[in-house]
Design a protein that fits this description.
Aldehyde Dehydrogenase, Chain A, domain 1; 7-stranded mixed sheet; Aldehyde Dehydrogenase, Chain A, domain 2; homodimer; 2 domains
Amino acid sequence: MNWYAEHLPLLERARQACAERHCWSPYPEIPGKYPNADQAQADGKQAFEAHLGQDGRSRQFALNQPGQVGWLGEEISPYTQQALGIEYPRCKVDALFDAAEQAIGRWSQASIQERLGALMQVLDVIYKEHLFEITHAVMHTAGQSYNMAYAGSGVNALDRGIEALVHAEQALRSVAPTARWERSFGPSHISLEKTYRLVPRGVAVCFTCASFPTWNAWPSMMASLATGNAVIVKPHPASVLPMAISVRVFRQVLAQAGFDPNLVTLAVDSSAEPLGKILVQHPKTAIVDFIGSVQFGLWVEKNAHPALTFTETAGNNTVVLESADDLDAALRSLATTLCIFSAQMCTSPQNIYIPRQGVRTPQGMVAFQEVGQRLAAAVAALTREPKKAAMILATIQSPQTLALLEQLKQQGQRVGQVLLEPAPYPHPEFPNARTSTPLMLQVSTRERELYAGERFGPVSFVIECNSAQDALAQASADVREFGGLTAFLYSTDENYIDQAEQAYARAGAQLTTNLTGAMPLNFAAAYSDYHVTGLNRAGNASLTNLAFVSSRFCIAPSRRPSRQTA
Amino acid sequence: MNWYAEHLPLLERARQACAERHCWSPYPEIPGKYPNADQAQADGKQAFEAHLGQDGRSRQFALNQPGQVGWLGEEISPYTQQALGIEYPRCKVDALFDAAEQAIGRWSQASIQERLGALMQVLDVIYKEHLFEITHAVMHTAGQSYNMAYAGSGVNALDRGIEALVHAEQALRSVAPTARWERSFGPSHISLEKTYRLVPRGVAVCFTCASFPTWNAWPSMMASLATGNAVIVKPHPASVLPMAISVRVFRQVLAQAGFDPNLVTLAVDSSAEPLGKILVQHPKTAIVDFIGSVQFGLWVEKNAHPALTFTETAGNNTVVLESADDLDAALRSLATTLCIFSAQMCTSPQNIYIPRQGVRTPQGMVAFQEVGQRLAAAVAALTREPKKAAMILATIQSPQTLALLEQLKQQGQRVGQVLLEPAPYPHPEFPNARTSTPLMLQVSTRERELYAGERFGPVSFVIECNSAQDALAQASADVREFGGLTAFLYSTDENYIDQAEQAYARAGAQLTTNLTGAMPLNFAAAYSDYHVTGLNRAGNASLTNLAFVSSRFCIAPSRRPSRQTA
């Protein structure tokens, strides 16, 4: 069993992709291209269904973790609005930390190859044996569409995991394991053998979110584990199953490799009794990977000390429409991206800044009002037909999002104009699905309070600005103040584009300019696109750069006189 | 003026040293080997003296910084106990931040080569034109001996600066500047040009300490500047001159290279009106490099958010004496290291743990009491003769240290045994020098409160432990709880050594085993030894690893359709 050797060709290819940042993935991008796809998909569905409670009786998802004191689970499928009926082990927090700490010993002393081999094997087992099971689990917790759950929460998340391993290996190998050091001090010759031990920080706590449970979690876990740490996963109580399946695979593969499975455990909580603050402030917590709300994220960053924190909170993501060669193509791309997974992605655009004078096109200026109406029409066209709507909008993960839409609609009616009213659409396969078409409001920059900061869910704001310069200034200032991951620009003016590139680089959002066509504007390519920049409140977990991995371990040196020296 | 090309051979050689961690330095290790040494040393002394006030009139050290509102300075030479009479610009804090922020623009957009070239030139100018001037400045502020000021605060600090540049370059170059990314989405082919801009965090505040002003400062400044940030230096009010000279060189060279000199400024304060907390919590502070007390260091770590922090506070540094082939040689090395610069180094040993049963030697067990007495005798022998004492002990930087010695002596008399009483020794060149021979106390582990935590200055504790196992357990537990940078072990038992290596790696102190001879036990070699590990309260500034540099900049990506694609 030499997993490192087995997976080395893949790892080497991934290293090249990370260095050159071109398009690559070892995985098929759509379910139909998976090997023996029909059978695999049927098996995955069956495996998912085998987890579910039946006839009102819940089913227990055993993990054999230490300190178990009971069972709990409260997941409800956004597709059926029925409880999944799965219960997970409730374990004493101290028992999980003690077990994790114990498990670190052998793991951290294993070679880099051993650790990387086992972790590549984890990804391989997820891919070969659990991918469609997780796809269904993500659908029925996060509420994503089948295709997105496969791609975004499946293979793309696996890619992000490999990427984290590549960077972890690079950071670990940047430290020489040993050295011989020789120097004279006056007449005396000193020769020392030096050893540089790589020591993990300790126990990492990895939070995962309700709407995208695996995508941040797998790379964070890989980054911590590759560098020798243990990981306690704290899933959002609404989306436990994808991480429970993942944790089980980690535990099985680690045990198979001769390591203590308690290197990876699951700490489930309930919305009534959250564990988050207890885990962050536990004296044994050495690293926190947090994905979730801005509010709790800021609390984590302030209170996790002395633990290291890696965060990805939320995006006040902006669009600037200044001019376009093909305005319809731009609006189609924008409409699609506003709809994908009902804008429940941290990369979904939200605020669209347009000059009052309108948008320049080869056919002349298109008035501000008209641009908003055409964009609204493009969104409406995408969501009118239930089958198409289901593929693109999927479901609404949380009932709170529907409440927010209603509240924002009412506020919008008072201070601005409602361009699109949200409404449930009938899902063709799941008649009870929690759904909504998007809310689109037209406002001016005086209504900043309404749109500044992330409004999680299918809502967007068409914002009237004083000028093209003002649009860019407002948009980038909002990113600086409220955080933002992505930004989008349409302009045919190279000077304006250059200004925008500078402004967004300072504000710290990834800028996509003049993209049209079939690629969703917010598509994030593993091995090529980075995630949050660390320059604004959206967080600092730039999947994956050296900063994401290099402080997860420390160097403990020792030195002694060389044994065979003259 | 292509400074990068000019300094590239040196940088390439330094890269190799950092990778292999062998012994290397481009600089002569003792003053006498400096080119044209006599003249250079005379010139340096003269340059230093030209800074001093005369006849009770102070002299102004002009820096031409923005927002200057006055002058201040309170340095007193530990060698003469007279005021240096130098006044430095007192500037408005906001003006320094505004100017620093403005200066970042062009600097951060310069190429990596341009920045590295200018920074290598800074080090070169310090070495060629200011080294002996700084040597004298360090003597008369920090109180180091001439040779230590030259080596430890001069060339070794320059080496640490180069090391930081090597690692910064490695981190910066790990990000591809651009990429072409191509993929099909259904029938549509997407080709994107991607740009990965490296964006600095912003303004770094670099604290420097009273007793070792340059050694941490130069590498911290280099790490921040190489990654595109600006730096405001906040020197300890007792040791401003070495950093004022440094800051002036940075400003001159940066201006010569066409950059805004306000990239590097000096924020001087007084002990009556400290600026530290204001600087740490300034809204524009993006990075804090802190060297100083544990107490303030912990405050910085807790309160600097959202700024990044790199800290090096203090060492509860431990020695375990279990057995020795040549106990006298071990005690001689230990005695020397206890004396060097009156133990005012963060790497100086303090707590010496010895089994009650004594220390095993080829001649039999040497009783605990006898080991303590022989060590005390070895220290006394080093400090008896004033000329020798002056070379090794140098002076006491702060009057507070003398007060602490007196207080600890009294406490030690009550609860333990005074092995060595501190006393001033007459400095042969400076009759008014503030000096003291070391205090050495013998206690048991019941007196832990007395010795746990750093006691800054020439004090050490010989601690009676229950057994060899207990000695190691106590020592490593004290490091874990109170922090520690260095640790020293004498043992002929390979199993015991192995245990110690594991225990100290977990505790996070660099362990030096069985070293005897002319090298000071706590000698830290640039390009080879790392500094604090990040695993305990002594801090996280491991000069220099990837973690020390890679989060000082962020990656801001942008992407747009490729311009010449099919």
